[in-house]
Structures are given as structure tokens and as C-alpha cells.
Amino acid sequence: MYGSGTANGVPMSTLIDTGATVTHFQRRFFDILNCDRKVALTESDLNILSATGTLLNIFGKALIKFKFGKKIIYQTVLV
Asked: Which DSSP symbol is given to 21?
């Protein structure tokens, strides 16, 4: 399912996978939504493989505020 909303106030369209066990942002998107540097990126010791089996480079994790319509969700995101 695709949805449109915001992540920390930045407009986005995204694939919403209700069966996913983690949420991942590319570093470049995280830098865009965190341009005011209000979101802390904390250390993460997770190793994640993509659907194709490629090891993802995880820089850390952050708590992100998502808004879809009137629904607000706070979700930890791997970056």
C-alpha cells in the first residue's frame, strides 16, 4: 500500500508495509528531514539485509513523527 503524508513535517510518498519488522530511511532522506538537526541519531548495532540480500549500511536510529491524514505515529527508523 502506498501513502502520502509527512515525516517530521517533510512531505513524502511511501510504501507502507504493515508486515515489516523495521522501518528504514536512506541517509540522504534523513538528512533532508533533519535539516534543523532536532532529531538525534543514536547508535544501532543491527545488521540488516535488503530484500535482495545486500547488507545495508546502518548509521544509527532515530524516532520520527509520521503523519498520514489526521493519524500521527511515532516510529523508530533505522538510517
From this structure: S
